Structures are given as structure tokens and as C-alpha cells.
């Protein structure tokens, strides 16, 4: 039976230390160069262990979801704008109909007034003759 070796390979530890120092310097440089808002990206990288494939996959999914949401919102807004334009046109047509009815009614009222005046004049003349 083989026993797991309890010996530590010292060159590997030294290499890991170098990588840790370089990684720390990179993170420090990112903190100095990047604005505060990008700190969330650095935190996500640390949480995922720096696995680029996972973050690129999630970034791709996020972008795809963003574009789908964006396109859907554009379609909904286009539908709403079309509906509003349709309502404006319908309202204009109804207003035109109402205004034309009002004009014809006004003409009818004026004709009735003229007829009423004529009838009153005729009645006044007939009363005077009697």
C-alpha cells in the first residue's frame, strides 16, 4: 500500500508564493486603475476563483438576456406608440364628425329662427289687419 507523501515540495510552495504575490499586485493595480464601480467585477472574479470560462459564459448569458429584454421593451413601446397614434386618429375623426354635426345643427337652428321670425311677422300683420 502506498502512503500519501507528507513531504512538501519546497519549490512548488515558492512558485505558489510568487503567483500569490503577482496576483495580489494585479489586484492592487486593478483597484488603482479601475473606478469603484468595477470593484464588483473584481469581487466576482475572486469568488469564482478566476475561472474565465464561467465569467465569460455568464457575461454572454447576461448580454443575451439584456438584448432580449431590450428588444422586447422596444417591441412593447412600439406597440404602445402605435396604439396611441391609432387613438389620436380615431379621436380626430370623431371630432371632425362632431364639428360637422354642430355646423349642420347651427345652420338648422338659424333656419328655424328665420322661419320663426317670418311666422311672427305674419302673425303680427294678421293681428294688425283684424
UniProtKB/TrEMBL annotation:
It comes from the Eukaryota. This is LSME1 protein. The keyword Transmembrane applies. The lineage of its organism: Eukaryota, Metazoa, Chordata, Craniata, Vertebrata. Keywords: Membrane, Transmembrane, Transmembrane helix. InterPro entries: DUF4577 (IPR028099). The keyword Transmembrane helix applies. It comes from Syrrhaptes paradoxus. The gene is Lsmem1. The chain crosses the membrane at residues 65-89. Pfam families: DUF4577.
